[in-house]
UniProtKB/TrEMBL annotation:
Organism placement in taxonomy: Eukaryota, Fungi, Dikarya, Ascomycota, Pezizomycotina
Signal peptide from the UniProt entry: none
Biased composition (Polar residues): 74-91
Entry protein name: Proteasome assembly chaperone 3
Region (Disordered): 72-91
GO biological process, one term: proteasome assembly
């Protein structure tokens, strides 16, 4: 019977900690009295944003930003070349009509799906207002405890927190 001896061929390896390869930002605040955490991770082909309460993520949507029309109003630039009159502060809160949010995971409750898709288009619009040439896919993960009960004020609080991480 032959006996084999194992010799360690692995040299001593030094492991060095390194930062996550994608730029990321996190913020948190209160929305409807609940601690809400927003995280943004910038990959080369995607912008991933998660909105979580109590560590929950239950609904995912994506919004292709590359399909956005180049002739839409860019309120942050102050230029209005659309011929639609002046840009007022109320219309800057409206989502762009050329963005479409699609549920990719979750969305089994129609009411929550509508809130998720609306948040997706509003956040996509906000991204394009800050970075007009953005071409990446926006992926939005939602974990709101009471998405259906989200009123205008809470909706604006969520969007405000997202703007902090963009």
């Amino acid at each position: 019977m032959a006996t084999t001896t194992t010799t360690s061929l692995v040299a001593e390896i030094s492991v060095q900690p390194s930062p996550f390869p994608a730029k990321s930002k996190t913020t948190s605040g209160l929305v409807s009295g609940r601690q809400t955490t927003i995280t943004s991770i910038n990959f080369t082909d995607k912008l991933l944003i998660t909105i979580s309460q109590a560590g929950r993520l239950s609904h995912w949507v994506h919004v292709p930003l590359a399909t956005a029309s180049a002739d839409q109003i860019a309120p942050s630039s102050g230029n209005n070349t659309s011929g639609l009159g002046s840009v007022d502060s109320e219309s800057t809160l409206l989502p762009r009509s050329d963005l479409t949010a699609t549920t990719v995971l979750g969305g089994t409750k129609r009411e929550e799906e509508v809130v998720g898709q609306t948040l997706g288009t509003v956040i996509g619009s906000a991204v394009l207002m800050k970075r007009a040439g953005e071409q990446r896919l926006l992926v939005l993960g939602l974990g709101l405890m009471d998405a259906v009960g989200l009123g205008r004020e809470e909706f604006e609080e969520v969007v405000g927190l997202v703007l902090d991480v963009l």
